[in-house]
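Local shape tokens

___
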Amino acid sequence: YFYVAKIALIQEPLDKVYDWQADIMSDDWDTKKAIKKISEKPERLICDVLMDQKIFSGVGNIIKNEALFNAKVHPESKAGSIPDKKLKELIKETVKYSFRFLEQRKQGTLNKNWEAYEQEECPRNHIPLHKKELGKTRRWCYYCNKCQKLYA
């Protein structure tokens, strides 16, 4: 189920070149390591951090948008300004949604369950969602200014 991928010929054992602790669906996933990497560049927008494959390997644009919406975090929040408790909640939601994403993708129901991605209205507040290309990645973000808090 890959729609964006990078392919490279690996000459050495995979465990030597791949960081399983950054793979959010791996048993070796390490939340503490992710938090440490996030804290090294606190000025980055959280929408860019979630798309950083060295921190959140496997997260794509849909997962980013849905996790931010579910955790009620604005995509333009600065990573270092998000309180620790809220950051941990966002990380937990990102991991949880990744598994839900995979199951819904297998069942063919993925796009029927989106709450933010490609949606026009906030299901919580029934107001229009904003759609904007944000961050260095310039990927589409769908968000609600009312229920997703901006941490500046």
User: Anything to note?
Assistant: The chain has a mean pLDDT of 94.
